[in-house]
Amino acid sequence: MKSEGMIELNQELFIAAGIYCECYENPSNKHECIKIPLEGKKASKRLKEDISYYAKLHKRKVSLGYVADYLGECQTSLGKGYIYECVRDYDLAVSRRLQHYLDTDDIEKDVLYHKMEELAHYLLGHKILISDLHARNILIQLSAEGDIKPVIVDGIGDRVAIEFMNKLPGAVEAKITRRWNRFAQKVMGGRALLPSK
Is the Cβ–Cβ distance between 180 and 123 less than 8 Å? Predict the structure, then answer.
């Protein structure tokens, strides 16, 4: 995990804001972003839960090719920050949200749905739970060759009171499938579904 001195953040470095945190570019590394929790216990609690789940994935040595990895804590001019990989396109622009490509014809829909299906199978194969599957939590990374890759940047983990069922592989797979298919029905009109367990 990384440890850095005080990082000065300002509006020029601002990337986006979510319900629980604001995201800024790390001024010393364009390939990292820093999440600052908004005021309130809920935001801090949520980030701690995310980090706890990342620790489990790191312990399992899970490949995070489709998930923006958590890299550590830092101190910033806006308070305590949490460093993550920053998902960027080949031209170094911050990758756009899935919702943008669902709303436009910038990427052929069949190609987009195929890549989203790959993401679904990746989550299932690596048994990665996502608590908040939303089009705003998935970025579409563009390569210079014209390839695309969906990357989950928020909502990782499972926010449940009783975690016992998450120790059973079959239960985890069923939960991933159920959540993904609910998301696919709502956001993609039933495309990129996983076979029901």
Answer: yes
pTM of the model: 0.91
What is the token pair recorded at 21?
């945190």
Write out pLDDT tens, residues 5-36: 799 999 999 999 988 899 999 999 999 999 99
Residue 3 neighbours by CB under 8 Å, 6+ apart: 72, 73, 74
Secondary structure (3-state) at 15: strand
The tokens for 54 are: 């990342």
The label of the residue with tokens 């060759």 reads 145
Listed by start position, the domains of the chain span 11-85, 96-188
| C-beta of residue 188 within 8 angstroms of C-beta of residue 113 | yes
For 136-195, write each residue's pLDDT tens digit: 999 999 999 999 999 999 999 886 655 655 667 688 999 999 999 999 999 999 999 999
**Calpha distance 30→53 (Å, rounded):** 25
User: Would you tell me which CATH number, out of the four given (2.30.40.10, 3.40.50.1820, 3.30.70.3450, 3.30.200.20), belongs to the domain 11-85?
Assistant: 3.30.200.20
Query: 76: which 2 tokens?
Result: 């910033």
Amino acid at 80: K
